[in-house]
Design brief:
binds magnesium ion; binds adenosine-5'-diphosphate; 10 strands; four-stranded antiparallel beta sheet; 9 helices; Rossmann fold
Length: 259
């Protein structure tokens, strides 16, 4: 039996009388893209926030590579190797691509220039940024010194995904990465997500876009009423069957599909 890279068991979170997540499970296995789908209010964002340290659950447990973790802040999760790209991309529009890739984790120059004067190692950051972007085939971004505000939505998303892939050592979580994109840009970002998986990082992809989900997901976690209703695959179910389970019109298969 393979150990999940990331696993949630029985997570709950209440806001007053509102139950955002109600004993939710989640399992992400090595080498997979796990899509998370569900109606508005199903608890997708809350579940993902708990996994990325942005929310402390009232109860339940989280395991990384089989070891229980207790994230108190998003930094705790990042330090543990979980990178999350939120729907509202945390990019700085006025800064260039290289600066954005290293936002919040700038590399200092070695020696006293770095330690005393806190000088940034800009050349190294630029080279690294270039390497990450070209590793992921983000070829349209010729100029790593281009300001992010001059990029299209898809290119910005690519920067955010590349950043998460560059720094996430265990898991990448993407919240609606293609929601605001056109067809062509959306497809490019989907390819980027596949590339991230193929390079060995499992991905959790939250999306409302059923064609996108069915195109890239290895397994599909269906969240309903604050819980995992089941897990299906693009091979086991059609899009309309998935939507029927999501909305409660159809009964979910009792056993989540294993990878
Ligand atoms: N910070 C909050 N305060 C109060 N209620 C919240 C908060 N966050 C989420 N909720 C509620 O919890 C439920 C699940 O929300 P959410 O996790 O955002 O679902 P989803 O992402 O699937 O739409 C919703 O009823 C929502 O209104
Ligand atoms: Mg949400």
């Amino acid at each position: 039996m393979t150990t999940p890279v990331l696993e949630a068991r029985g997570l709950t979170k209440r806001y007053g009388r509102v139950v955002a997540i109600d004993g939710s499970d989640l399992s992400l296995y090595p080498g997979e893209i796990l899509a998370v789908i569900g109606d508005n209010g199903a608890g997708k964002s809350s579940l993902i926030k708990a996994l990325s340290g942005a929310l402390i659950p009232d109860s339940g447990s989280i395991f990384l590579d089989g070891n229980q973790v207790h994230f108190r802040t998003p930094m705790d999760a990042r330090t543990a190797g979980i990178e999350t790209v939120y729907q509202t991309l945390a990019l700085a529009p006025g800064l260039d691509i290289a600066d954005n890739l290293f936002l919040g984790r700038e590399e200092r120059r070695s020696g006293t220039l770095g330690s005393m004067f806190r000088m940034l190692d800009r050349r190294h950051m630029r080279d690294e940024a270039k390497r990450h972007m070209s590793d992921l085939g983000v070829a349209t971004l010729q100029n790593i010194g281009q300001a992010v505000e001059s990029l299209s939505g898809g290119q910005r998303q690519a920067v955010a995904v590349a950043r998460s892939a560059a720094f996430g050592s265990k898991v990448v979580i993407l919240d609606e990465p293609t929601a605001a994109l056109g067809v062509k840009e959306g497809n490019r970002v989907l390819q980027l997500i596949r590339d991230v998986r193929d390079r060995g990082l499992p991905v959790i992809l939250i999306s409302h876009n059923m064609p996108h989900v069915f195109e890239v997901a290895d397994r599909i976690h269906i969240q309903r009423l604050g819980k995992r209703a089941t897990v299906i695959t693009p091979a086991s179910h059609s899009m309309s069957e998935a939507v029927a389970i999501m909305t409660g019109a159809a009964q979910p298969p009792p056993q989540p599909v294993a990878p």
